[in-house]
Write a structure and sequence with these properties.
It is a single chain. By secondary structure, the chain is an all-beta fold. The protein contains 3 helices and 54 strands. A hairpin with a 5-residue loop joins strand 23 (319-324) and strand 24.
Length: 771
């Protein structure tokens, strides 16, 4: 008698990936960390390695779905294939950022693989499965051409995951499940395919002779072929939508005597399901008190929007980016382990902050932007646009807005920050000091994604580890960078509106040539020759300013001050330091040097404010006009806490601070936000100036060298012939007979304001050109 297995496809449950002692979901030796006890949600995005200490790369962009307590399916969203299905433990996270700050590679399959597929197209609409990705330097890397196949995103219906993608012009919905087939584990792939003008072919398994597959439903001309363990499904052209399933098991005998009901229609599950994360977590914020020279009325304080460090999901609140909604009363915040939370109740007092978990499972998101009310999140793998389809406060559709370029588990290949220009185009920084053959082309650059997400280009190269950017009101882009090889110190770069093709100083990591294998060295040389046909550049675009390593060991992102609600700095730039948990004001001038070229230069000064974590994202609120910053403790930083979301609030007290700097052939004009006491302002003894240069080389960082004697380490004292207060009462001209372009200058001052308040501080500036 046939055994009837009752299964309702529409109610298949993809159990949450939540670590529990009896499940051993994350395999990590030693003491559990926040990353091992966290509930990651119904799916988990990452690069994926095979089992073992040096498992092969199974997929650069993988979405691992838990389809039961101990059965898992990982999709490669570049090629739209199942990279692997396995049983047993979930993932080995022991060498990743998910469990600690020093991870360097991807999660690895921790269980026993049932079947897998080779890197290559998972589908074909042209009768061939030959890989069309032909880049000689990086074969079989990156997404398939869009006309071949394209990942569209995934839907959640409760815990069930439904993937959406296109093969040629055919739209596909697919959901993985698992059933017990006469005691054997069987992976159930359920499909709905819209009409297709062409015949289609799907890869089921490769090099898996013990695996068998069976078709359930679908057009009569559909068939499964098995040749030497290469299992394929062939479908005819479809005049109308087809609904069917493919059952895959490693035990062919398990099919005997089994009858399985036909699958249901997945299109009924893409309008949103039941909410998963329950009621919001409540916290109370803390209003800041004056810091720094309080007696002189410093006009900024730091308020804290208390994070829900204790939450029902053990979500690790290492906050990596944020943005505020248009009303200014709520914000979206993402975390390094893949969450997005929405915090509401943002007002003057911050007494009742409500935190709701909105989305989960994204690949190390380090950028977030709200545009037209929608949340866009930048992970290593893609920009994801999040949709709440049924209005229950949780994301139901994780849309792939753009996944062009290359995704890799390489340690430094982070995708950092996300911002928009006035036309709606997105920008982010792609890091990656350790260039490798597989992902060289998209390292160390600023990427621009069109407003509709349809294309990507790279407007700047030579960035080492640009952890943050800022886009100005005219489309200008600024970005920080961090000291390291070919990077003498931290700095801020300025990219003029419309400028492309600039090189900003980092050609490659010299350690890649430490490899002993001759073939590997040859590959590295071919990479460099392809990227730099004329040879490694001998110079680079000068930064807006260098920042002394003692003051900023690891730069974050920037933001432009939009209006006067944040004090007298409209149009200026703020800069964050992740390494020093500090905030800087950037004073910049744009020097027209002819032929339509503009060179930026200027300086910074540090706010005397303390922050709870290594801040690296900055956003001004359209609601209250104040600055909101976020950051975390991940790699090296002096951060006190795992994460933070804080508000830098202008109190309205008088500001007595530097606001403009301008270098000329005769000296420097330094402008303040208030009228100055003439006696101290006109006294050259009120100022001290030193200068020094840095060495650009493949060495890690640079000592500080004398300008007068370039071989001598140290600073030069700069003569100030005179100081003269200008007619506006706020600007001082410092006459400097020996002024010259210099990489780093410090200007310290001890003044009084016209109303008698002490004014002490230091400006660190760069002079690129004198006119």
């Amino acid at each position: 008698m046939m055994k009837l297995i009752s299964i309702c496809i529409l109610a298949l449950t993809a159990f949450r990936v939540v670590a529990a002692p009896e499940e051993e979901s994350a395999v990590v030796p030693g003491k559990p960390t926040m990353g091992t006890v966290m509930d990651y949600g119904p799916f988990f995005s990452s690069s994926l390695l095979g089992p073992g200490t040096k498992g092969p790369l199974l997929a650069g962009r993988a979405i691992t779905v838990r389809v039961s307590k101990d059965v898992f399916v990982a999709y490669d969203t570049e090629t739209m294939r199942i990279a692997a299905a396995w049983t047993g433990p979930w993932l080995d996270l022991s060498k990743t950022h998910m469990v600690g700050p020093k991870g360097s590679v991807a999660p690895a399959v921790a269980g026993k693989i049932l079947f897998s597929t080779k890197n290559g197209p998972g589908w074909s609409h042209e009768g061939s499965l030959d890989d069309p990705r032909k880049d000689a330097l990086a074969p079989k890397v990156g997404p398939l051409p869009r006309e071949w196949a394209q990942y569209k995103g995934l839907y959640l219906h409760g815990d069930q995951v439904i993937l959406s993608y296109a093969v040629g012009k055919a739209r596909v919905l697919e959901s993985p499940g698992v059933i017990n087939l006469n005691g054997a584990v069987a992976i159930l792939r359920t499909f709905r395919i819209d009409r297709s003008e062409q015949a289609l072919m799907m890869v089921i398994a490769d090099d898996s002779p013990a695996v068998s597959a069976q078709l359930m439903g679908g057009p009569s001309a559909a068939k499964i072929s098995n040749s030497g363990g290469a299992i394929r499904l062939s479908l005819p052209a479809l005049a109308e939508p087809a609904i069917f399933a493919v059952l895959v098991t490693a035990d062919a005998a398990a099919f005997a005597g089994v009858k399985i009901p036909p699958p249901g229609d997945l299109s009924k599950l893409i309008a949103g399901g039941a909410a998963q994360w329950g009621t919001p977590v409540m916290t109370a914020g803390v209003l800041g008190k004056p810091q720094g020279p309080a007696a002189d009325g410093f006009p900024y304080v730091v308020d804290t929007l208390t994070l829900p460090f204790e939450n029902p999901f053990n979500s690790w609140m290492r906050t990596t980016a944020h943005d505020l909604f248009a009303d200014g009363k709520s914000a979206a915040v993402c975390t390094w382990n893949g969450d997005v939370w929405i915090v509401s109740g943002i007002d003057e007092k911050l007494e009742k902050l409500s935190w709701r978990r909105f989305a989960t499972g994204m690949y190390e998101p380090l950028g977030l932007k709200i545009r037209d009310g929608k949340i866009y999140v930048l992970g290593r793998d893609q920009i994801t646009r999040l949709h709440d389809l049924n209005g229950d406060g949780e994301a139901d559709f994780y849309e792939n807005f753009n996944n062009d370029g290359v995704c890799s588990p390489q340690y430094h290949h982070f995708k950092m920050d996300l911002d928009c220009d006035p036309a709606g185009n997105f920008y982010y920084a792609s890091a990656g000091a350790w260039n490798t053959a597989e992902d060289f082309a998209s390292h160390n650059c600023i990427a621009r994604v069109s407003a509709d997400g349809s294309k990507i280009d790279y407007i700047a190269r030579g960035l080492r580890a640009a952890n943050g950017i800022g886009v100005g009101p005219k489309g200008e882009v600024v970005t920080g960078d961090n000291q390291g090889h070919w990077m003498p110190s931290s700095k801020i770069n300025y990219i003029a509106p419309g400028k492309t093709g600039g090189f900003y100083g980092f050609p490659y990591d010299p350690r890649i040539y430490e490899v002993k294998d001759a073939k590997e060295k040859e590959i590295r040389q071919r990479e460099l020759s392809a990227l730099y046909p004329a040879g490694i550049p001998s110079s680079f675009e000068p930064p807006l300013c260098w920042i002394p390593y003692a003051y900023d060991t690891s730069s974050g992102g920037q933001a432009f001050v939009p209006d006067d609600r944040w004090g007298p700095f409209k149009g200026h730039i703020v800069h964050t330091s992740y390494g020093k948990s500090s905030l800087f004001m950037v004073m910049h001038e744009l020097v027209d040097v002819g032929d339509g070229k503009v060179i930026a230069q200027g300086g910074v000064w540090r706010f005397p404010l303390a922050f709870e974590a290594g801040i690296m994202r900055a956003r001004f609120s359209a609601g209250d006009g104040q600055l909101y910053v976020s950051g975390m403790r991940g790699w090296q930083t002096n951060s006190a806490k795992e994460g933070c979301l804080q508000r830098v609030r202008f109190t309205g007290q008088p500001a007595r601070l530097p606001v403009e700097i301008k270098a000329t052939k005769q000296g420097i004009y330094l402008t303040y936000t208030c009228a100055l006491d003439p006696a101290t302002a006109n006294d050259a003894g009120s100022y001290d100036i030193e200068q020094w240069n840095l060495k650009w080389s493949s060495a890690y960082g640079s000592p500080e060298f004398s300008v007068e004697n370039p071989t001598k380490k140290g600073h030069d004292t700069v003569e100030i012939k005179s100081a003269k207060l200008q007619p506006d009462g706020r600007t001082v001209f410092l006459e400097m007979p020996a002024i010259r372009p210099v990489m780093q200058m410090s200007i310290t001052f001890k003044l009084k304001s016209a109303d008698g308040h002490n004014m002490e501080g230091a400006v660190y500036n760069t002079i690129n050109v004198l006119k």
